[in-house]
Design goal:
This protein is an all-alpha fold and 177 residues long. The protein is built from 9 helices and 2 strands. Helices cover 66% and strands 2% of the residues. α3 runs antiparallel to α9. The protein binds iron/sulfur cluster.
């Protein structure tokens, strides 16, 4: 773990990123969660994840995304998108108690796409920010405003949490680029 670099965490293939996330969780997960600042940041993140999930559920996004994803031509969650995540984001999912396993390996759709939609609690920036035309056209304007706010709040919290964890790891392990 001493030779691990920031580049490894952000620019490896997705399988390697997940291995790094699991190793970091095994080595430091308990300490990270005990850290007062990080602990409260993780709780805030959990609340924001629940808020956006409630907003999405209220807009029937899970059903719509599942229907779209089950069509032969698939939905938006392509295999290419799986590597938009990074090892620290995957570590955050693990710290929040999400058991991350590859849901599929069909050479076509994202590894994290399960029967109930995305299996990540904290998702890549692009995934959170993107809404297809179907969603945009069917939603009421107040729903889109609420979704936009929930997305912005969550992205900000995810970024802050990643920065805190990187700082912690640099101090603890001497992590470098
Ligand atoms: S939302 Fe989840 S399943 Fe869809 S592309 Fe992003 S990470 Fe993959």
């Amino acid at each position: 773990m001493n030779n691990l670099t920031i580049n490894d965490l952000y620019f490896s293939d997705v399988t390697t990123k997940l291995d790094h996330a699991r190793n970091l969780n095994d080595l430091y997960g308990v300490e990270l969660k005990k850290d007062a600042i990080l602990g409260s940041q993780l709780e805030k993140l959990r609340e924001l994840v629940m808020e956006i999930r409630a907003q999405m559920a209220g807009m029937a996004m899970f059903q719509r995304c599942s229907q779209c994803g089950s069509r032969p031509e698939g939905g938006c969650c392509s295999l290419y998108m799986a590597n938009e995540t990074d090892a620290i984001q995957l570590l955050i999912n693990l710290l929040l108690g999400q058991n991350i396993i590859f849901q599929r390996d069909d050479g076509f759709e994202c590894y994290f796409l399960g029967e109930q939609g995305c299996s990540l609690l904290c998702k890549p920036f692009f995934c959170l920010n993107y809404n297809c035309r179907e969603i945009l056209e069917r939603a009421e304007s107040h729903e889109l405003r609420a979704l936009e706010k929930a997305t912005g709040d969550l992205l900000q919290a995810q970024y802050s949490t990643e920065m805190l964890i990187l700082k912690w790891l640099k101090q603890k392990t001497g992590l470098k680029h």
